[in-house]
Amino acid sequence: MAKESVDYSKYFTAPNLKKARKRYREDVQVLDFEQIPEDMRNIGNGQSYLIKTYGCQMNEHDTETIAGILNQMGYTATEDENEADVILFNTCAIRENAEDKVFGELGRLKPLKLEKPDLILGVCGCMSQEEAVVNRILHKYPHVDLIFGTHNIHRVPYLLKEALFSKEMVVEVWSKEGDVVENMPKARSNKLKAWVNIMYGCDKFCTYCIVPYTRGKERSRLPHDVLGEVRELARLGYREVTLLGQNVNAYGKDFKDMDYRFAHLMDDIRKIDIPRVRFTTSHPRDFDDHLIDVLAKGGNLVEHIHLPVQSGNSRVLKRMARKYTRDEYLTLVDKIKKAMPHAVLTTDIIVGFPGETDEEFEDTLSLVREVEFDSAFTFIYSPREGTPSAKWEDNIPHEVKKERLHRLNELQDSISRRKNEQLRGQVVEVLVEGESKKNREVLSGRTRSNKLVNFPGPRDLVGQLVNVRITEPQTWTLKGELVPEERVEAL
Ligand code: SF4
Which residues bind [4Fe-4S] cluster 1 (predicted)? Predict the structure, then answer.
């Protein structure tokens, strides 16, 4: 049933954007996850949980951590919301429609909560870090039992216990910048590919982005903790790791007592016996020559670099506070291509940023033509409450934004198609991930450059690296045939 109406201010430090902007590099502590207390270890025996995850890989990975904690408390996972005793929404704040979906879901589940008063309904993730969201849930969705923020995941056992026994909504959202908590349990959802956080937060404060406020300041995990986790994953037989951070190449900038940056970390991970290492996402501003030199060594460091550009026009980039110009971005791309001729570049682009003129948008198209990205995530600008650009007039009509997006996508699709066509007849290394969703006779996997390949083959190849000749390149995927003995010629 709905929780009683109370004054929640005593339970949490409300997210505060002003404070977030004034943060400085102090007080980051590396903490060890405490064992689940005795009285909470079996609290979930015979009960199940369902976590609905929205947004980026960081959130997916946080869900693995929350699931790991719940498993240690005796809960088991379920896909069926009617069966679940705990339903958590691990939310994304990057776009307003992602938030609307969650509010829609919370409304939809109200009858279930009325029917099953013992059901625990919780909201966590980036939305919980927003003051306006927390207030809206407090006032309009009183059937929610639990809200916790991105810095509070290690507190799940205590929060859940409190929610189980309290008559009030339990809210714990720390506005502080967050610590680094090591050794949290993880229920990894994939047995071949694993995510490894190397750092948290972001200090870039791009003017359109809510992340620096929801995820706190940049703080890096210590090298031996990251390397230890990657070694352990290698020992367990994982074939691929993806190093995660909002801005991975700012890694180590916050270390006060050592000069150890992302390039050093990659160079050390290169020596670990795991076939593939990826990273996401990088910021052009922090992409230094040392990193390019290390990536050019290849080996298990794959040739795929996701390098969000956002716009091809320097004035727009300045208004976005991206901290690089068009020319600087192109110079960086040039350096990468020279050092790594096989590099596959992908990007993110926003169209219709406030004040973007037709000419400025044309600069984005010309940059896309010049760089020739293999693929791009393209978005129409929409303001996020609490960010600087949300205060500016969103003066590009929606029709114009849509038309720009359409032109950009058409251009990018033609480039993607042409790039994939270059692979026709070539043999690529594929990590076989499973059966194709559309046809169980067909296996699917990814190249080192992260392109999806479908090809007929026996199921026992799942988990292996095999050679596949590309026979039918398409715009977003590749079709091929197995070439067991042949040498890999392309990436
Ligand atoms: S670099 Fe910019 S876009 Fe990326 S998370 Fe940080 S503020 Fe957001």
Answer: 56, 92, 126
